[in-house]
Amino acid sequence: TYRPFISITMIPLNMQIISTACSNRSREKMKEIIETLNASRRIFVATHVKPDGDAIGSLVAMGLALEAIGKKVVMYNESPIPTPYRFLSGIHRVVHDSAAVGKCDSAVIIDCGDLLRIGRMAPEMADFPVLLNIDHHATNSGFGHYRLIDHKACASAEIVFRIITALGVSITPPIAMAIYTGILTDTGSFRFANTNRETFSLCETLVAAGANPSDVARHLYGQYSIGRLKLLNKALDTIEISRNGKLSLMALTQRMLTETGTVPEDVDGMINYARRIEEIDVAVLIRERRNGSSPAGHNRPFQVSLRSNGSVDVGAIATTFGGGGHPTAAGFQVKATLDDIKTKMWALADTL
User: CA dist 210 to 95, 205, 214, Å?
Assistant: First the structure.
């Protein structure tokens, strides 16, 4: 069964020593990151393909902060920037041409559980002279020469905030807006379990520095295209429930996107409709990816997203399929038939 680990309530006498050691290691890792960034002249900053709000907010905030201390910065993402995030200051600086890496002497990879998540640049990055890994996924593979990974952080943007502060950079309104966007989206508008007291304390600091919550919310949630609403209608029609009533499943094909004139980023957030069904522990969204030119019934590329109500560790489940993520939000990619994927998900449901 894919149940999360249960903490043992007995606390060892040396817990304080362990906590201090962990804290010391975190400080040492931060020191390594800061020293590396200060020593670099031209820095390549990238995040994962099909970026979400945390990835984009972290990318822009880090890029602007490094420029503030006189660094030459290349901000890169393989995918187009989804429309809702194009309001961020500095977003126009993000390039999509892999040749932009140029003469960079170090690279910062943010919000990627694995180096492959950055896309076609991954092989080149693997041989990069100095590679920094900044992330908050518990399933992070540990790539890079220097790593700052904190799975307790509510978003990678929170870790980026710590780095910016350690660099001595002032949190300007554009940086505050970018970090706030990352936190707002990765906490599900403060609805997910990764929202805590520190999250709100940090957001208070960001608002004081110039982040405008209503402005961010207006751009992210204020309006939808008619195509997205039509796609949502088609998606809702595909919802199925497992025999034991614990897993819901939604499926989207490329044909649906074509018929509604939508793009992959229009799918963002749709899995939550399946997750909010009463008595559901796990929601699954199966989305056919581009280049799925094989005939129906043959293997095609799919992205499978998993969401949990907290009772099931979907990050552990995704790992068994070659993916990763968080205990309540994870995913993986697979090449198979839609029926084969559904069969595996129904088998998973029986273990819940």
Answer: 26, 9, 12
